[in-house]
Design brief:
Glucose Oxidase, domain 1; globular; two-stranded antiparallel sheet; alpha/beta; 312 residues; 15 strands; 9-stranded mixed beta sheet
Length: 312
């Protein structure tokens, strides 16, 4: 499906495309159409209690994986972003039980480390998800709409696609992209089928670059192409993430800048998950699992530092 055709279609119609060939995670034919995104919560608003219960049934071992990395002053971040924390001594002991305490103050950009991008993060010429205009909701003291505090808890089936394994490498090459055909081939080889309501994570091995070369880690990222993003949107996924800081390949084409972010957040209502620690999942060959995310509910935030978990 060509990109200009997708943008020319209504969003609901675009998401219906390909529904007839979508299979449920248990490989039975799923004839229900992919639902259109909720006007506020995007595709995350289409996760049903039945989907959650079915995803919880994937837990057989009880092994828990932390998908978030530690965020701190040494985290590699986009230029201009910073992190600092100040801890306070709570003073002398108080009360008959001599209680003592510490407190702290965090001053940070929330787009550092493992994070979720909300719908207020990226727009198209000032227009964001659901046709909301920037001037109607942006404020210096926090977004009045589309803040990440409104993202619902996401508990659903998670799918890991090991793209490094697919390409036969430990780590993808700088700026390397992958799209529809590679995603389909990797899923088939790894024995998983992507269904609507799923969260899809990509293991590229790129997180190992963070400590080797921080500048390259940001500027030369491999990742999903716009063709791949459109394909996953057709399948009705609710969020897409990777072990890189941008999810998408930085090999932008045609003068576009962050086209995957723009498509997912503005058009498809699909959240972007960045800097996901997928290494342990990949090492264990864990290609499907119960994915759980409850993000901090900071009023008006554009992004949020997160530590989602995978359970299998």
């Amino acid at each position: 499906m060509q990109r200009n055709r997708i943008f020319g279609m209504g969003l609901a119609a675009m998401l219906l495309a390909g529904a007839a060939c979508t299979k449920a995670p248990d490989a039975e034919e799923d004839t229900a159409p992919v639902p259109a995104p909720d006007s506020t919560f995007g595709m995350a608003g289409t996760i049903t209690p039945e989907k959650v219960a079915k995803a919880a049934g994937l837990v057989t071992e009880g092994k828990v994986y932390a998908l978030g990395v530690i965020t701190g002053p040494d985290s590699v971040a986009y230029p201009g972003r910073s992190f600092s924390i100040i801890a306070y001594d709570g003073g002398p002991a108080q009360g008959a039980n001599k209680v003592t305490a510490h407190d702290d103050r965090l001053e940070t950009h929330v787009g550092i480390g493992s994070q979720i991008d909300g719908f207020g993060h990226i727009g198209r010429d000032g227009v964001h998800f659901g046709g909301r205009k920037r001037e109607d909701f942006f404020a210096a003291d926090g977004l009045k709409e589309l803040g990440t505090e409104h993202i619902p808890p996401i508990a659903t089936r998670g799918v890991l696609l090991d793209m490094a394994k697919h390409f036969g490498v430990e780590r993808l090459e700088p700026m390397q992209g992958f799209g529809r055909e590679d995603i389909q081939a990797a899923a088939e080889a790894q024995g998983v089928t992507i269904g609507h309501g799923d969260v899809v994570l990509f293991h590229t091995g790129w997180l190992t670059m963070e400590q080797e070369n921080g500048e390259a880690y940001i500027a030369q990222q491999p990742g999903i192409s716009i063709d791949g993003a459109e394909y996953l949107a057709e399948l009705g996924v609710v969020a897409i993430g990777a072990d890189s800081a941008a999810l998408e390949t930085m090999a932008f084409e045609g003068g576009n800048v962050f086209p995957v972010h723009q498509f997912l957040l503005v058009d498809a209502g699909i959240y972007v998950l960045e800097t996901m620690n997928t290494a342990e999942l990949a090492a264990d060959g864990a290609h499907e699992f119960f994915f759980v995310l409850g993000q901090p509910r900071f009023a008006g935030s554009v992004q949020a530092v997160i530590n989602p978990i995978a359970i299998r």
